[in-house]
Each structure stands twice: as C-alpha cells, then as structure tokens.
Amino acid sequence: MLPKYHILIGLLASLMIYSLYELTVIQASIIFLSSFLIDVDHYLIYTWVKRDISLKNARNYFHKRRDKWMNLNTPEQKKYKRYIYAFHGIEFWLLLFWASTYLPILLFIIYGFIIHMILDYIDFIYYKQPIYAKFSQLYVYITNKKKIDLDKEIIRGI
C-alpha cells in the first residue's frame, strides 16, 4: 500500500482510538507515527542496495519495482527473491512486545504496527500475494534461497 494511504488511514485510526480510549496525545501520536514509519525498513533496504540516501529516489525505486513485480504472473513471482522488511515480521514484533514489558510505551508502537499491517494484509489479499511475505521475515529468508534477485533481472531487461 502506498504511504499516503498508510498516513491517512493511520491518522483516522489514531483519532478514533484517541476518542474511544483514555489516551494521551503523546500515546495517540506514537500510534499514528508508527502506523506509517514502520516502512522505514523499505528506505533502509534502498540505501543498502543502491548506496543512495535520496528519499525521492527510494520512493521511485520501490514504485518501479512494485510495478515490475505486479506485471509478473504468480509462477514467475515465485522465481524471485522478496526483500526482508525487518519491521514487518512477527520476529520483530515479538521482540518489541517483550521489550514493552520493560518500556510500556512501546505497546503504542505495536498498535501502530497493527494498523499498518492490517492495511498491508488487505493490499496483499487484493493483489493475491502470499501473506507470509509480510508475516515472517525468517520464512522469507528461508524461501529466498536459490531464487533470483529481481533487481539483477530488471537490469538485464526482463
């Protein structure tokens, strides 16, 4: 899902949660910010892969990459590696949940992540993508073995 939708829906969800529960403005703001800032892992991947820190270039890169991915049929998609989005997997969420026993404010980050992930899951269901890619990054790592790097194929002009 595009960031603008994560921001808009995250804002609406945060305002709704704020109005329904006894939250402080800070807590509601953390929920809102974490509902879209979870995607910083996309930017970190871009900076690592491309050695470029331009946010605009990162956005363009992921838009082009998504378009290329969506133009592949399902059997073709299965040939290619998926990126490991560190903040999008249960492994990170469990670590965050564990840390929230020591820093309870982290629970509000988890709430924002939940909002984000619900939207990602809706997007994946709509586009008939496997949910595991946004559920377990360890599983993505394991299933990536012996797959082709899509970026290298894009360069070759598939």
Would you mind describing this structure in some detail?
The chain is mainly alpha-helical and 158 residues long. It has one domain (3-156). It is 69% helix and 0% strand. It is built from nine helices and no strands. Helix 2 (25-37) packs parallel to helix 7 (106-126) and helix 6 packs antiparallel against helix 7. The radius of gyration is 17 Å and the shape is globular. The model has no long low-confidence stretch (mean pLDDT 92).
List keywords for this structure.
single chain; 158 residues; mainly alpha; 9 helices; 69% helix; 0% strand; globular
Question: What is this structure's SSE topology?
Answer:
Layout: H1 3-20, H2 25-37, H3 40-50, H4 55-70, H5 74-77, H6 90-100, H7 106-126, H8 137-144, H9 150-156
Helix pairs in contact: 1-2, 1-7, 2-7, 3-4, 6-7
- The average pLDDT value, as a whole number, equals 92
Report the helical percentage. 55-70%
Strand content: under 5%
Indicate how many domains the architecture comprises: 1
- Poorly predicted ranges (pLDDT <50, ≥5 residues)? none
- General form: globular
Number of H- or I-type helical stretches: 9
Radius of gyration: 17 Å
Question: How many strands?
Answer: 0
What is the ordering of alpha helices and beta strands? HHHHHHHHH
* Main structural class: mainly alpha
Biggest sheet character: none
N→C terminal distance: 24 Å
Describe the structure in brief.
By secondary structure, this protein is mostly helical. The protein has helices spanning 3-20, 25-37, 40-50, 55-70, 74-77, 90-100, 106-126, 137-144, 150-156. It has one domain (3-156).
